[in-house]
Each structure stands twice: as C-alpha cells, then as structure tokens.
Amino acid sequence: MTAPSSDQPATDQPGDAGETSADDPTRGRDLSWFFRHVELYMTDPVAAHDWNASENSSASAEGLHSTLLLVTTGRTSGEPRVAPLLYQPCGDGYLVVASKGGTPDHPQWYKNLLADPHCEVIAGTFNCRAVAVTVEGDERELRWEQMVRFWPDYETYQARTERQIPIVKLVVESVSLREQPPAPGDGVSDDGGSEAEPLGNV
Question: Which branch of life, at top level (predicted)?
C-alpha cells in the first residue's frame, strides 16, 4: 500500500461538486496535514494516536488529543475512504462528531455512514470493525457535553450552522486484521475520496 502523495488533490466538499463554498470556514487552508497524519498512522500508530492541538492554529484547545482513523465505504465509488478524527471512548465504542467546522453540509464520511453504517476504526494499535449509530435524544445532549469538554470549539462550530451537528457512536463489532489503513482515494469524488479538513473540524 502506498502512502498518500502530497500533491494529491485536497478539497473540502460542502456539496457534491467537490468545491468549497464562499462561506466555508475551512476554505483556503493548508490541508497537507491530512496526508501527513494518515501516513504517520501507517508508520507509527502510537505517535499518530495522540495529536497535538497546536497543529491546528485556529483551535482554542491545547495539549494532546486522541485521534482515530475512520474507514468508510464510499457511497458512490464503493471504495474505502479514510478520515482522521478526534474521538472519545464511550462504553463499547467511540464517539466522533460530524462538525466539518460548522459548514452548512455534513462531512463526506458521515454521508458515507448514512449509506452504509459498517466501518473500520483504527485507534492507535487497536483495529476493529464497527457499526455507526447517530446519537439522538437525551443521550445526544449528554454526549454533546462530553465532546465539548474534550474539544470546546465544537460549540463554536454549532453556532456557525443551522444544521444540528451529528454525534456518532462507532460501536465495536469485531477485531479487524487489517495491518494498515487505506490511503485516500485518487482524485476528487463525491464520497470523500479527497476530502481533507483540519482535525477538530471534521
């Protein structure tokens, strides 16, 4: 498996056109971190697991934060799509937030999960297969408070958008035997093949 190349297209995709909107707060940012982080997970998952928030200059949080790689199935391509995300443990699974920095549209990885909730989670050296469930009702309020304590900027992202930012629980099903995560897909697609956003914004 080859690592993602630094010259691979990297676009935010608030819509299916593969373009950023004028009011997209992630527009114009250097997204080379995305490829570096995925590559680091391939070579040193222990180091990749603990991400320093100072690498995101727009973040108010400081210190080390837990990250995972989420591998979804592209809803149009059928190909594996990978996204690095912040997470918090939650019982038999992991909590992630589909914030996309407070843009009007959901991130592509969340759209992929709506089409097929079966996914793979790589958290440090632990790999597992999981099923994604969008947290609703009273539990959502509880989990939202948990995630905001972990990453306070989520409240800022919610204030930017009229959509309710989804909280997703990745419920562990079984241990996976995959040795390395897939590289992001080549070229721009409408299912996240080249979607890349700063950690904390996804």
Answer: Bacteria
- Domains, the chain: 32-175 (2.30.110.10)
pLDDT confidence tier of residue 62, bands split at 50, 70 and 90: low
pLDDT for res 201: 58
What's this model's pTM, rounded to 2 decimal places?
0.74
Write 13-16 long-range contacts (CB < 8 A, 24+).
13/105, 13/108, 13/188, 13/190, 13/192, 13/195, 14/100, 14/103, 14/104, 14/105, 15/105, 16/190
Residues 6+ apart with CB under 8 A from 88: 66, 94, 95, 146, 147, 150
- Partners of 129 in the β-ladder: 120, 174
If one compares 37 and 77, the residue with the highest pLDDT of the two is 77
CA 12 to chain centre: 12
CA dihedral sign, ordered 24, 28, 29, 33: positive
